[in-house]
Amino acid sequence: MSKLNRKNVWAITTKDFSLFIKKKLILYSALILPLALSIGLPMIIWYVVTNKTSVPIQAIFPIFNAFSFFFIILSAIIPTIIASYSFVGEKVEKTLEPLLATPATDDEILLGKSLAAFLPVISMILISSVIFMVLIDIVSFPKLGYLYFPNLDFGITILLNSPLACLMSIEFSVIVSSRVNDIRSAQQLASLIIIPFFALYLLTEINVITMNTDSLFLIAGLLALIDIVLFFASRALFKREEILTKWK
Amino acid sequence: MIKIDNLTKKYGNLIAVDNLSLQIEEGEVFGLLGPNGAGKTTTIRVLCSLITKTSGTAILNDLSIDNKKDCIEIRKMIGLLPENVGLYEDISAYKNLNFYAKLYQVPENKRKERIEYYLKMLDLWGKKDVTVGTFSKGMKQKLAIARTLVHEPKILFMDEPTANLDPEATKMVRDFILELKKEKRTIFLNTHMLDEAERICDRVGIMNTHLIATGSPDELRHSLWGKKSIVVVDAVTDTILNSIKSLGFEKIAVDNNKITIEVNDPHKENTLITRAILDAGGQIQTISELIPSLEDVYLKEIRRNE
Fold it and tell me: How far is CA A99 from CA B79, B100, B136, B216, in A?
């Protein structure tokens, strides 16, 4: 990999930011979904705790873990919306050729655009996870007598699994973007990335997998492996010549 | 400034550019003419190091398209105006230029100055904060030209700069290119608008995957078309034609009352032709040298090479 010019990378990232804030779908999906999750899920717990007093608080612990997993799913789904726009949007609006004619390297463009999808998603995931933890602690503390969050498992989920899932989603979106011609198709195809996460969630719900520290580390390892494979695949596709002559 | 040697680009079995050799001097405006699919855009893309060549080479200001490091330097040195302007429509004109100025590493203290200069020059300063999506086609083209110039490139590549523009915008773009010509910029222009090439370019090349001919518009007219005299008479008769042939002219074409004769020196030979026609009893309405347009030369050569 040639030496990256950080100024070029950041110029591309900030340019994409200024485009994203004009797109309502991107804005709403990046802001509202994580916030709705971080506020809505504790509200469910609050309802259970205050109205269904017969439910022992210990029975709610698995729900906390299941809710935590939603943050990984969200980290995979939101980047598909942003990254698809970032890559296919340039293709549709025919802005790629002048961009590729600049001295910015392929890697700088790819990294700049990936960061433009990664940073807002991860920022919102972090903010909403803090809101989620605080609200859960507020509603569960009177019954538990101690603060359930923060804990190691949620730390792994938010600080390790969510960024890895986000990266995987971005890389997958780059690959999809090279094969489709419109933003909506790219978003729909790229959103297929969440299927394995939902499968994993269902397996935990039917107790095939227990979501504990070990399994969260195992998921992180698998995600890292997939990220590496997808990184090389997306990088191989994101070449000037490929983009100008072979991208649909 | 630009030296192209046997440049070939193939897409699979399809030859897009076939053994192209050209030399373009500093400060020259060179126009590449050719029909759609002639390889003009591919040529520009190879020269801008956007795509790789299959064989041959090209040197731009001592930088080779074969060398990866040179390719980045080439992209710093050139400005490309692609056929599709490719502006970011959701952000302002100023932000569009500022983004490209950053990528071309224009120093921060010069960025504002240059953007202001070109936006004012192209009469867009008043619209600098307006979203580009609301611009007319002509305004977008002007902004794209400003984007091409914001880093003061040594060589400009323009791919169909007036395609799809209305006559007013076309004139404005052409006038601006002529202004750039006065500044002695090296400009490589793709077009299939022949009057444009004739007005703007110092030299043109006619291409249909391979280079058919190159030279100034005047040189091409004379070397490819030849010199012709055209005589309009009241009525063409065999006597008149035989009289002209007796002067030694062999290539004569007749269209109604119009006789076209291939000559060597129209100024001298038109007198002889006039006398021959009058001697044969003909009545001349007009006699003149037929000056072909670049379009006539282009069409003739393209058809001949099909």
Answer: 11, 8, 22, 33
